Amino acid sequence: MDKRYQVFISSTFSDLKEERRAVMQAVMKVGCIPAGMELFPAADEQQLDFIKKVIDDCDYYLIIIGGRYGSVTADGVSYTEKEYDYAVSKGIKVLAFLHRDPSEISFAKSDVDPTAREKLASFRSKVSTGRLIDHWNTAADLPASVALALISAIRTYPATGWVRGDVATAPELLAQTNQLRNENDELKKTVQNLQKQIVTAPRLDIAGGDEKFTVFGKYYDGFYRTWSLQLTWNQIFGLVGPKLYSPIAVQNLETTLGPAFGEAFGINGSGHTISKRDFETITIQLSALGLIKVYQAEAVKGGIQAFCTLTDTGTKRLTEIRAIKKKAEG
Q1: Which of these, 326, 314, 306, lies nearest to 200 by C-alpha position?
Q2: Residue 133 gets which letter from DSSP?
Q3: Helix (H) or strand (E) holding 236
């Protein structure tokens, strides 16, 4: 049966017009149907709701990231990032194409505001985490990469697709197809739930909560000194957890924890670091408790790197530890 697949093309608009044209042509040459901002280039909250309905009808979601974060909504998140988050939440296969080096993009097509640049870097990291991505330097690089990625996705992750209305389909075959699709969806949900339980289920024989662990560190206040803190695992997680709302490279987490411990417990000085052995123990322990997830993924600049982030269990536990409780009345 001859199918056509619909592909939603997402990006910032005015700075990537040439790149979008190149991608749309590649999508059509592969025999797919492109959909995107050309129908509604002005972004607002009302149109975002309409865009979500278009994404619902698409089989694949393709995102191009250049040198701009894009127009933001009232909560400070760009429309492009909201489109991406929605596609991910709906389980649509994502094909990501990131500019290899945003610093090389012309000034006219780049964010100048430091906040926007920081948000763009964070968004690039989010899109790069947990999936294979392609890089590009110019619009001319995109057609071949897009065509290959789409062909591979259609072969590896076949979607529902579209069939002409005048193509006759036996009712029995259609019923069987729908039944198999429903069974497949149920199996996917079962597998996802089992994987989630495996990742987040805490070990019962692992120390946690109010049990204590001694953390050693160093700092400088005119002399090189050492410190040690005997902390509960709740205290340790209360310091580590807020840094993991978004995925962070393990080596970056290690760099930030020393100053965090020093500031939290009033140890004056600079250059705070914690013992590497203690840092490794902390990450292993919190992972074993099901509070954080440590995994490997492709880094923004290429290569494989270790990242960590909160699990759902960790997010709930962190809220219990750090959220300010109501004062008792009376």
Answers
A1: 314
A2: E
A3: helix 233-240
- The reported pTM is 0.51
Tell me 242's DSSP state.
G
Return the pLDDT at 172. 58
Distance CA(78)–CA(300), nearest Å, equals 20
Q: State how far the Cα of 233 lies from the Cα of 211, in Å rounded to an integer.
A: 6
3-state secondary structure 137-197: CCHHHHHHHHHHHHHHHHHHCCCCCECCCCCCCCHHHHHHHHHHHHHHHHHHHHHHHHHHH
Tokens read off for 149: 């990625």
The string of pLDDT tens digits covering residues 226-259 is 999 999 999 999 999 999 988 998 888 988 888 8
The 3-state DSSP class for residue 204 equals coil
157, amino acid identity: Y
Q: Which residues of 16-41 are buried (b: 16+ CB within 10 A; e: fewer)?
A: beebbebbbebbeebebbbbbbeeee
DSSP, collapsed to helix, strand or coil, labels residue 292 as: strand
**Do 154 and 115 touch, CB atoms closer than 8 A?**
no
At residue 27, does pLDDT exceed 90?
yes
Q: What contacts 182, CB < 8 A, 6 or more positions away?
A: none
Please check whether residue 97 is in contact with residue 64, taking contact to mean a CB–CB distance below 8 angstroms. Answer: yes
**pLDDT tens string 168-226:** 455 656 666 777 787 777 777 776 665 555 544 555 678 888 999 999 999 888 888 99
Burial label, 311 (beta-carbon count in 10 A; 0-12, 13-18, 19+): buried
Tens of pLDDT, residue by residue over 29-58, are 999 999 887 655 555 667 888 889 899 999
